[in-house]
Amino acid sequence: MLNDGFVPDRTEDHSESQRTPGSGDKNGMSENVELQLDYMNKTFKEDAVDDDDTIIANSKNIIAVGLESFWNNYQVFMSQHRRVLMKLALIIGIILILVYMGAVIWQFQLKENLNTDWCHGYGFSFILFGLLIWTVLYYNIFAPHLFPCLTRNIHCTTWIKIWRKSRVIAACGVIILLVAFLIWDTSSNRRRLISVGGLIVFICLGFIFSKHPTRVKWRTVYVGILMQFIIGMLAIRWKVGRQVFKCVGNLAEQFLEYAYVGATLVYGERIVRQDAVFAFQALSAIFYVGMLVQVLFYLGWMQVFCLKLGWLIQVLMGTTVMESVNAVSSVFLGMSEAPFMYQPYIKDLTKSELHAVMAGGFSTIAGTVFAAYAALGANPTHIITASIMTAPAALCYAKLVYPENTRSKTDSKTVVVYKSEDKGILDAAIRGANIGMSMVLAIIATVIACVSIIAFLNDVLAWLGMLVNVEDFTLETICAYLFFPVVWLMGVEPSDCLVVARLIGIKVTVNEFVAYIKLGELKKTMAFTPRTEAIATYALCSFANPGSIGVLISTLTTLCPEQRFNIIEVSFRAFISAIVISFLTACIAGALMPEEGFVD
C-alpha cells in the first residue's frame, strides 16, 4: 500500500519494530529508511514509464549530442536575430528579382519586332515589376519615414477644411460636366436620355423602400453612381479601356481554370471539360480558392490586402472594409469564393453589411463564367464591363436600401486584424479545402431544392392557365409583363421591350444561363440593334436567381453558423436589390451606348 503515491505503509511491520528494543531500534530504523528509499526509487522508475512528461536520459553518442546542441543553438540564434535575418532575406530576394528583371529586359531588347503584350507577355512582367518596386518602397520608405514626416509638417485641420469645401465644389462640377456631356452626346438620339430617367427612378424607388430612410448616406450613393459612369466611359467609349477590362477578365478566368486540372484528374475529362457538369466543374474552384486563400490568410497577406483595398474604397464611398472587399472580389472570384477572403470577419458584420455582401454577390458574376456566357452568344466585352461596373453600384444601392444603423466593427479604424489559428502552411491548406467541401455540399443541396421548387410552381401555374384556356402561363410570362415598363425605362426600343422583359423573367425565375441561351437564339432570328443587345446583356449579367439565394445562404452560414438568422433575414431584400442593381448598370450602358454601338 502507498500513501500519497510514495511513502510505504508500515503498519504491517509495526510489531517487528517493537520487538527490537534498545540498540536494535537504531539498526531497525536505518534498515527501514533504506527499504523506504529503495521502494521509492523502484516506484518512481515504474511510474516514469507511463508518464508522458518524463525526460528520457540523454544518449551518450557524441554525434547525437553534438547535433542536438547545434539545433538548439540554431533555434536560439534565429529567435534572437529574427528581424535582422528577415531584412537580410528581403534584401537578397530584391537583388535576385532585380537580376532576373535585368535579364528579362536584356532579352526583350535583343528580340526584334516583338509585341509587348501587356496582358500576358513582357509587358505584363513589366507591370508586375513596377508594382513590386512600389510595394517595397511603400512599406520600407514611404509609410515608415516619408508620410509621417509630411503629416508633421502639414497643418491637418487646414487641409481638412480645404478638402471638405473642395469636395462639394468638385461634386457639383462633375455633375454639371456629366449633364452637359450627355446633352451633347445624345443630340442625335434623345431616346438615350430615357435611360438617365430610368436611373433616377430606380434610385428613388430604393429610397422609398429603404429600411432606414433617415440613415441614408447620399455621399455613398453619389460616388457609386459616379464611379459607374467613369467605368462606363472607360470601358464603353474608350477602346483601350475595353481592352484593359477584357485583359483583367481573361486573367481571372485563367487563374480559376487551374482548378479544372485537379477536377479533371479526379472526375475525368468528359464530366469536367466536355459536359461541364456544374457540381464537378464550377464548384471545383471552391476547393482551389479556399485552399489558396487560407494559406494567404495564414501568412498574413490576405489581411493586408483586405485592409488596404477596403480603406481605399471606404475613403471614396464611405463604406466599411469587408463589404468593400466583397464588392471587388465578387467580380472575379464569384459569390461562393469571395467570402473566403474575409471569413474570420463574417461574425462581426452587421445586418446592413451582410445585406451589402449578399447584394454584391447576387449582382455580379464570377470570372469562371465569363467564357461560358460568351460561348452562349453574349458579347464578352459587355459581360466583363457589366461585371466591373456593377461593383460600385452594388455598394451604393445596397447602402441605399439597407443603410447602417449600428456601429460597424469592420471600419478601417476599428477593424481587428485576426491571425490564423493554423499551425502551419500545410495545416492551413488542408483546412481551406475542408471548408470548401462543406460549402460544396450545401450549395449542391440548395440548388437542387430551389430549382425543383421553381419547376413545380411553373407546372402548377401552367395547369391553372390550361383550365381557363390561357397558354404559357408561367412565372417567366408573369415576370415578362411585370418587367415591361422597367425595360422601357432602361432605354430599350418599345418594339423590343416585351422580348427583353421575357429574357429578364427567365433570368430571375430560372437562371442567367438559360436567359443567355435565349438571347443568343434571338440574335440570330431578330434584328436587335447593338444598343438593345448591350442593354439586355447588361441587365442579365448577374447571379440574381432563386438558385443563387440558396447558394449564398449556404456559403455564408457554413462559414459562420452564428450569423444564420441574420443572413436569412436580409437575403430576400438583397436579392431584389441585386436585380435592380443590374438595371442601374443597364441604364448607364443605355445612356452611353449609341444605337449603332462600337466596333473594336
UniProtKB/TrEMBL annotation:
<feature type="transmembrane region" description="Helical">
    <location>
        <begin position="168"/>
        <end position="187"/>
    </location>
</feature>
<dbReference type="Pfam" id="PF07662">
    <property type="entry name" value="Nucleos_tra2_C"/>
</dbReference>
<dbReference type="InterPro" id="IPR002668">
    <property type="entry name" value="CNT_N_dom"/>
</dbReference>
<keyword id="KW-1003">Cell membrane</keyword>
<feature type="domain" description="Concentrative nucleoside transporter N-terminal">
    <location>
        <begin position="198"/>
        <end position="269"/>
    </location>
</feature>
<feature type="transmembrane region" description="Helical">
    <location>
        <begin position="354"/>
        <end position="376"/>
    </location>
</feature>
<protein>
    <recommendedName>
        <fullName>Sodium/nucleoside cotransporter</fullName>
    </recommendedName>
</protein>
<dbReference type="InterPro" id="IPR011642">
    <property type="entry name" value="Gate_dom"/>
</dbReference>
<feature type="transmembrane region" description="Helical">
    <location>
        <begin position="537"/>
        <end position="560"/>
    </location>
</feature>
<feature type="transmembrane region" description="Helical">
    <location>
        <begin position="473"/>
        <end position="492"/>
    </location>
</feature>
<feature type="transmembrane region" description="Helical">
    <location>
        <begin position="126"/>
        <end position="147"/>
    </location>
</feature>
<keyword id="KW-0812">Transmembrane</keyword>
<feature type="transmembrane region" description="Helical">
    <location>
        <begin position="440"/>
        <end position="461"/>
    </location>
</feature>
<feature type="region of interest" description="Disordered">
    <location>
        <begin position="1"/>
        <end position="30"/>
    </location>
</feature>
<feature type="transmembrane region" description="Helical">
    <location>
        <begin position="251"/>
        <end position="268"/>
    </location>
</feature>
<feature type="transmembrane region" description="Helical">
    <location>
        <begin position="84"/>
        <end position="106"/>
    </location>
</feature>
<feature type="transmembrane region" description="Helical">
    <location>
        <begin position="311"/>
        <end position="333"/>
    </location>
</feature>
<feature type="domain" description="Concentrative nucleoside transporter C-terminal">
    <location>
        <begin position="382"/>
        <end position="590"/>
    </location>
</feature>
<dbReference type="Pfam" id="PF07670">
    <property type="entry name" value="Gate"/>
</dbReference>
<comment type="similarity">
    <text>Belongs to the concentrative nucleoside transporter (CNT) (TC 2.A.41) family.</text>
</comment>
<feature type="domain" description="Nucleoside transporter/FeoB GTPase Gate">
    <location>
        <begin position="280"/>
        <end position="377"/>
    </location>
</feature>
<dbReference type="Pfam" id="PF01773">
    <property type="entry name" value="Nucleos_tra2_N"/>
</dbReference>
<feature type="transmembrane region" description="Helical">
    <location>
        <begin position="193"/>
        <end position="209"/>
    </location>
</feature>
<feature type="transmembrane region" description="Helical">
    <location>
        <begin position="382"/>
        <end position="402"/>
    </location>
</feature>
<feature type="transmembrane region" description="Helical">
    <location>
        <begin position="499"/>
        <end position="517"/>
    </location>
</feature>
<dbReference type="GO" id="GO:0005415">
    <property type="term" value="F:nucleoside:sodium symporter activity"/>
</dbReference>
<feature type="transmembrane region" description="Helical">
    <location>
        <begin position="221"/>
        <end position="239"/>
    </location>
</feature>
<dbReference type="GO" id="GO:0005886">
    <property type="term" value="C:plasma membrane"/>
</dbReference>
<keyword id="KW-1133">Transmembrane helix</keyword>
<dbReference type="InterPro" id="IPR011657">
    <property type="entry name" value="CNT_C_dom"/>
</dbReference>
<feature type="transmembrane region" description="Helical">
    <location>
        <begin position="572"/>
        <end position="593"/>
    </location>
</feature>
<dbReference type="InterPro" id="IPR008276">
    <property type="entry name" value="C_nuclsd_transpt"/>
</dbReference>
<feature type="transmembrane region" description="Helical">
    <location>
        <begin position="277"/>
        <end position="299"/>
    </location>
</feature>
<feature type="compositionally biased region" description="Basic and acidic residues">
    <location>
        <begin position="7"/>
        <end position="17"/>
    </location>
</feature>
<keyword id="KW-0472">Membrane</keyword>
